[in-house]
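Forwarding these from the shared drive since the link keeps breaking.
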Amino acid sequence: MRNRRLVVSAALVAAGIGLIPGMARAAGPVEPSGPGVAASAGAPGKAKASTAETFRSPADRTVVTSSPTAPRATAAAGNPGLAIGLETTAYSAHTVNLQTTVTSADAVLDVVIDWGDGATDKLAPSGSAVLNRTHTYAEVGTYTVTVTVKDWTNNVTAANVVKAVTAGTEFTAHAPTRLLDTRAGTGAAKAKVGARGVVALKVGGNAQIPADVAAVALNVTVTNATDAGHIAVQPGKDFIQPTTSNLNYAAGQTVPNLVIVPVVDGYVHLVNGGWASVDLIADVTGYFTHSAAAGYSPLTPVRAVDTREGLGAAKGQVPGYGTFGVEIADRRGVPKGATAVSLNLTVTNPQEAGHLTAYPSGQTAPSTSSVNFSAGQTVANSVIVPVGPDGRISIRNGSWKPADVVIDVVGYYSPDSRAALRPVSEPFRLIDTREEAWYRTAGPVPAREYLLLPLLGDSPGPVTGWVLNTTVTNTRGAGFLSVAPDPNTWTDYQKGLQVRPERPVSSSLNWTRGATVPNLVQTSGGKGDVIDFWNQGWEPVDVIVDCLGFYQTD
């Protein structure tokens, strides 16, 4: 078994969070033509936090003033080198660390830190000192921190200011809008993306998205593929060699997947990792900024709609180009006032190829797609849907023939939630069942069993929810995967005290024989940050899980 040395992602270190030993590894693309891992994937790796920034205000920016009652010459002579150097670093989603370097003659000082949100801290060093303090803000955002040092002996005061930006980002729902369609020349040239080709997609300042956007939620679709391959979506405009994949496709397939990706200098870029050209489509449904908006609350997945049973909608297939509404707010754990809902949207038994579109009620159906399908196919896709003013969403069948629809609710965004997103700029692999892990031998997940993924030991506080790109491969028959928090802690498993988790009824992704299928999953880790991946099929499958980010309340 692999050496269980401590491997901690840089993103989690910055947040004061350590993964269980051996968890974080560099990720590699999953190739559908022969699923494999890049050569670097076997070695432990690190993830980089994309949203943690450090700001400095050096000592030479200090403003020194003397008391009106004290001669300036006397004050200067008593403490001529009084100065303050400041540095802020985002510690977690809401918490910032401030390092104050005071240069002073030996004297009793009063130091006052004004955090910019009405809170203050007071310290009393004697002379020069390096002071470290952390502060947790109620709201994510940008703040001006002011530090004042008063030397009462010499009647002199020094002050300096520095900017502090929380690492957490909050969500703003956006009406589903197409940003990219290489078939039509929207957002890029009207041409297929060539083998190993790259498309730089402008996000900041586009479609009323703020220029300083930190991350974006995109439904990315690959179509018109003539060979197998994968698509990677990455931050920024400049090409970076992909270390992971977001979508996998085979010849002739149209495959969607939700992607949450950091935005750098207003851009993200999409990489065609295949050896043949493809068309790419990207629809935005929301974005994240360093300002108060809506935080995320994960839910234990609950089924909201199943047209096969008449659950949450009329019993029977949705007619071709038919639309039905779904009550979301004040139902199934989603409160009134939720601005968006995180769903797993599944189409099954479609009689013809087409697509489903999920959008807020009270609006005309947009020309975007949430999940694409062919006749007879069962396909699931994770979606984030803005909630209409009446607390409802709408689902439209974009096919000429009927289809069944299944919807599972997995979470929601609300101004009342404090959980802010910290995306990582370099996804890291948590588990690949094709390879040996520190806590299990290599091998597929057996039929009707679950793969447990322990993350943070028995301390669930630091992380409220996880953003995971989950892929199944080496499928030997049809089936579906369910993802849910485990009711046990890792210690329970180590001591043999665990209870068997209840089998979920929700689905996170569906597959057929020989398919490699990815889907984004947003889930909590439960009381002990242990997540279960249930193979609901009747044949073993391999499971690969990459971490794209996490939500924090502090």
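-- next protein --
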Amino acid sequence: MADSWPTSDPSGPLPASSGAASSGSADSGPTDSGPEASGPASPGVDLHLDLAAAPGSGGRRAALERALRDAVQGGRLAPAARLPSTRRLAEQLGLSRGTVKAAYDQLIAEGYLTARQGSGTVVAERPGAPSPARPPASGAQPPPRHDLRPGSPDVTSFPAAAWLRATRRALAAAPSATFDYGDPRGTLQLRTALAGYLGRARGVVADPERIVVTSGYVQGLALLVAVAARVVAMEDPGLPFHREVVRRNGGQVVALPTDGRGARTGLLGGAVDAGAVVVTPAHQYPTGVTLHPSRRHALAAWARSGGGLVIEDDYDGEFRYDRQPVGALQGMAPDHVVYLGTASKTLGPALRLGWMVLPPRLVGPVAEAKLYGDFHTGAIGQLALAELIGDHGYDRHVRAVRLRYRRRRDLLVSRLAGRYAPSGIAAGLHALVRLDPRGPDEAEVRRRAARAGLALGTLGDHWHTPAGGGVQDGPQDAALDGTAESAPDRPQGLIIGYGTPGEGGYPAALDALVRVLRD
């Protein structure tokens, strides 16, 4: 695929909408006399009214009254919604200002509208008025009192002040072309900043031309399924949501068992036949083990020999506590491994910023799929992140939250000491707490937790199938040749996230957890 990308919307300019009343930017000061006058307290608003759709007797004033009345009664104009000034509405609808003013006065008299000097005309509050449309609840439950579910960071630690400064710097320096359609690979500024950061902090072999910026990890995974592989091996246990992402994008998922040394890479090309494999080598989710060095080498060799594509999910690689950093697997075979990273854990998932470092042969196809998916990820957030990385504010923030999460992990370990020994805690934002087979099982713990208003994760939710292989403790070298049998009974456990609660809520959440496990 060519390295030039469309810089304008291929659909062409949007036609002007007829029948829409707009107050425009000219409404910065008073334009009308009377109570509905527009002023600083009355920002410009748009209002669509179709007088032809309000049939009935009378002239244009009566049609305007019916259109406004129907809009209020039907809930399209919600209580407190502001209306355009009489002058602007008259201009847009081709009516006299007196006609519009008379219609407003009539609806004020009927109680549909209200007007105050200097505040403009708004829809009146009326008992029994329909509420604004809301999305269906879809069975949504109220948030728990204590949330120890894994998967999210402490969003109260988001560096709002630093992000605001970075955004201001980015906007001040941005040319006008920044606000046009851009490169589907992402802005050059962010790709350049990421290339430097990932090489320095994660050992990734990257240059800006090999990076595609995405709207998070999920989009990156979906693009790879569409472009590179239809049969994808995924770790078992692993995150079920990611398996569903593969399926919903036309892929087939096969299970790759894990044990005490991580993914059983020796099964690839044999018992596990797939064109691509998704792994979490730095900190397997949810068991927390690190992929053994021998298996890292075996996986890289499998990819280099043409076995398939390796997709490395480095979801929490920045958070390590008691060990030397484990570099990215991509550095061992950069032409055969796709590195996926995201700002969701380090900053916050609301940013919707992720990135892929691709083998050169995949850059064009992935960028093309991105182009026809959503054109490109929002440029302003990309430029702000580039600024944050460039002035090392990103590094400072990661160091600060790393220390905070380490303290939380240490508090979790100390509160459970004597009865439980959490595992997988050398890195990341979660811990696996194995349940004693002689004690309550996952289902019973979840029932107790629900009564206590505590949300947590369970290992049982992460297996590919209800029965089969499991996590095996200790070395399992035989698994490298695919001959080892899985344990007949899967271990049960809790997955405790220590990123989700705010600083003030974390101790109380641990108190609830201790009570649940003690009862």
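Residues 7-43, 468-488 have pLDDT under 50 and may be disordered. The longest strand covers residues 252-259.

- D.
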